[in-house]
């Protein structure tokens, strides 16, 4: 599900989605938002201050968020409504729906395998704690 949400945010609404999604969970500073987006993307993307702070200013002007006295940003009612519209659209984007066929499931598995291959290539130690689980899943798949 998170992968589908990530793809939706990246393609459809970009950083705006991730800022509002982060603030849905707790008020945060711009730096905390950058950290959280990086965490949610498994380290694949960290927005720059040059993209976060102008967006925070724009969202404040739109009345979607407000900056508190402690420097943290929080959602307004309008912002909460926008986040809910992202998460509960009337007609959800196809990418947010569960695969409805064997082909769809295989496409999902292929995408996740590609992600793991990228991790192995760029952060080789990150998969070591999971090696037995990965082997177990590979064995299960090979028996199908």
Map the helices and strands.
Layout: H1 2-25, H2 30-40, H3 49-61, E1 65-67, E2 73-75, H4 77-87, H5 102-122, H6 131-142
Helix pairs in contact: 1-2, 1-4, 2-3
Q: Total helix count?
A: 6
Whole-number mean pLDDT: 83
Question: Judging by the overall fold, what is the CATH architecture of the largest domain?
Answer: Orthogonal Bundle
Binned strand content: under 5%
Describe the strand arrangement of the main beta sheet, using strand numbers.
1-2
The stretches of 5 or more residues where confidence is low (pLDDT under 50) are 8-12
Rg, nearest Å: 18 Å
Description:
Pfam families: PadR (PF03551). Residues 19-84 form the Transcription regulator PadR N-terminal domain. The structure is a single chain. This protein has 144 residues and is mainly alpha-helical. The protein has two domains: 2-92, Winged helix-like DNA-binding domain superfamily/Winged helix DNA-binding domain (Arc Repressor Mutant, subunit A, Orthogonal Bundle), CATH 1.10.10; 102-142, no CATH class. The chain is 64% helix and 4% strand. The chain contains six helices and two strands. It has helices spanning 2-25, 30-40, 49-61, 77-87, 102-122, 131-142; strands at 65-67, 73-75. It has a two-stranded antiparallel sheet. The longest helix is centred in the first third of the chain and has 24 residues, at 2-25. It starts with a helix and ends with a helix.
